[in-house]
Amino acid sequence: MAELSNLTKDIPIFVCTVAYPGVPCPLHIFEPRYRLMMRRCMDTGTKKFGMCSYEHGKGFSDFGCMLEILSLEVLPDGRSFVDALGVSRFKVLRRGQRDGYSTADIEYLEDLKVEGSELEVLEGLHDSVYQQAQDWYQRLAVRIRDQISRQYGTMPEKDENIQASSNGPAWCWWLLSVLQLDPAYQTTVLSLASLKDRLGHLRLVLEYFSQS
């Protein structure tokens, strides 16, 4: 109970993939250690755990995303289907183990806010990259767009205030999920506390995908 009631110390870590804030992350749980983890998350009422991608030599990456369990269906054979949603980003401060699964002490990440002329430049960059993303999305075949919509939902609208969320605009994370990039690169973008830097990465990736 103590492990899960304090959501910065000894957080249970599911080592699998890169998850993002606001993006669904459905999971099929079959390993006994993760079945135990899910049961504890539900029993304590926190319904939250950390998700990190695997990293050789460390066990899991230095940055991850907290997931919240929306629903959990346990099958007769003990396996379970979990519908989870990304909530917030974090940096790993210390790694640990508990009953076969990884744990971590963490600190949460928030975007740095800007104002004045810096904000004006950021808003211009944001609108430009959003339009670039929309153009790329609309050029996809209808079949692929339908597949993306079923798995990730439709592309989120632009936020009126691009700094309203501590994670930045939702569409950025949606796009990163859809693009299915290398996990190391995904983790790099996840770790950025600058919306300007994140948009810069997205611009480069979109240019590459548009050309290819």
UniProtKB/TrEMBL annotation:
The UniProt record lists the Lon N-terminal domain at 1-210
User: What InterPro entries does its record include?
Assistant: Lon_prtase_N (IPR003111), Lon_prtase_N_sf (IPR046336), PUA-like_sf (IPR015947)
Q: Which GO terms describe its molecular function?
A: ubiquitin protein ligase activity
The record, for SMART domains, names: LON
Q: Taxonomically, which superkingdom?
A: Eukaryota
Q: Name one Pfam family in it.
A: LON_substr_bdg
For this protein, the record's PANTHER family field holds:
LON PEPTIDASE N-TERMINAL DOMAIN AND RING FINGER PROTEIN 1 ISOFORM X1 (PTHR23327:SF6), RING FINGER PROTEIN 127 (PTHR23327)
* Protein name (database record): Lon N-terminal domain-containing protein
Organism annotation: Champsocephalus gunnari
Classification lineage = Eukaryota, Metazoa, Chordata, Craniata, Vertebrata
